[in-house]
Amino acid sequence: MDELDVLNRLKDAGIEVLTCMQCGTCSGSCPSGRYTSLNTRRFVRMVQVNMDMLHCEDLWMCATCYNCQERCPRGIKIVDAILTIRTIAVHEGIMLPEHRKISHLLLKHGHSVPINDSTKQKREKLGLEPLPETVHKYPQALKDVQRLMESCEFDKLVAEK
Ligand code: SF4
Ligand code: SF4
Hints:
Layout: H1 3-12, H2 25-28, H3 40-48, H4 67-71, H5 78-91, H6 97-109, H7 117-125, H8 142-151, H9 154-157
This protein binds iron/sulfur cluster (2 copies).
């Protein structure tokens, strides 16, 4: 897929980024940008000029808080654009190794962060049952969860390419 397809896919999804005037309100509102390389204004500019966003690490730095989208004076659906590009990337087999790893944990355990002894102890200290009301407590339901994920081909989506 070339970069032009990404712009067209955004347009098809009703997302127009070409009206961005580079005011920087989005970057100034971005909590993630304070701690990561993400510069939302620059990101939108890169999308506008058809740069390869599928391999851009900033794509994965957004916390989807929607601050930028709510404040953009041009009403640009910035986060929707980021999520759409992420979706395209994953369908092209491009994702961070960390995301692939937690996806595999989800497929195997029904949890992206399976519980451990330390968390069980903390739950008990808080007066909770050691296991939450999930497949951890009802392991017989794990097969159903896995079947659900397979039925929407999540397993194929996150398989090593
Ligand atoms: S707030 Fe909107 S118009 Fe301003 S730089 Fe960001 S995307 Fe562009
Ligand atoms: S939604 Fe993402 S890009 Fe926008 S302000 Fe929040 S973290 Fe930053």
